[in-house]
Amino acid sequence: MTTKPTNTQNNLNQTDKQIKLSEPQVADRASQIETHPFAPVLPPNATVMMMGTFPPTADKWAMQFHYPNFYNDMWRIYGRVFFDDADYFRVGDEKRFDPKRIRDFMFERGIASCPTVKQAIRETGNASDKNLTVVTRVDLDNILPQVPEVKTLFTTGGKATEVLLSLLETPPAKSKHPKTNQSMAYPYQWQNLDAHQNNTVNDLTLYRLPSTSRAYPLSLDKKVAAYKAFFKEIGKL
């Protein structure tokens, strides 16, 4: 079920598996909570939505947009998949990509982007999913009505997949989660039935694609091939 922390202490206690914290410890944990800095990109004509986790710390940003690290290969992959040019979204010879060009492309092609994590604590001070404590998950009750044509979700790693599956009425066991380049039905149900009594949820499919981080042990060519196969399968190529 989607959670919205109305009480910081209760929320942090849940995150820490019911370990009781002293008031100074609670205050310290609360001060570590970060809110995702980038708003979702939600073209009204979108049929697919990309869902990652959390960006790196601000000192690693080359732009103020999703996947902001110049050394993350997300926008190189998009460039090669759709334009056969890894530098298509790059700003000349600068070490940054053009967020307006990316956003315009996403609206033109009907591709949404929404993180699975709204608030988190970086346990080791970096963007590693392994050491990310999720405080507040995405509110799909709010997001999905803004992209009513979306029928496909895709994640860019294991943590995002885990977070999305935790929102289901009956979350599958971890052994049943899709592995990289696999997919599964995603039978999401509205969490607030009163607010959505006149709306039905689309039949959604969840795909898990390779991480675009260079820490992920897969060559760029193989990542491009995986993303190209996916976009072909869902009719975007």
Query: Which class best fits the helix and strand makeup?
Result: alpha/beta
Identify the overall geometry.
globular
Poorly predicted regions are 1-18
Give the strand content.
15-25%
Distance between the termini: 34 Å
Helix content: 25-40%
The largest sheet is: 5 strands, mixed
How are the strands of the biggest sheet laid out side by side? Answer: 3-2-6-8-7
Write down the secondary-structure element order: HHEEHHEEEHEHEEH
Average predicted confidence as pLDDT: 88
Number of helices: 7
The tally of strands reads 8
Using only C-alpha atoms, the radius of gyration works out to: 18 Å
Task: Give an overview in words.
It is a single chain. The protein has helices spanning 8-15, 23-32, 74-83, 99-109, 140-143, 158-166, 220-233; strands at 33-35, 48-51, 111-113, 117-122, 132-137, 152-155, 182-186, 204-208. The radius of gyration is 18 Å and the shape is globular. With 237 residues, the chain is α/β, with parallel strands linked by helices. The protein is 28% helix and 15% strand. The strands form 2 sheets. A 5-stranded mixed β-sheet has the order 3-2-6-8-7. A 3-stranded antiparallel β-sheet has the order 1-4-5. The chain starts with 7 loop residues before the first helix and ends with a helix.
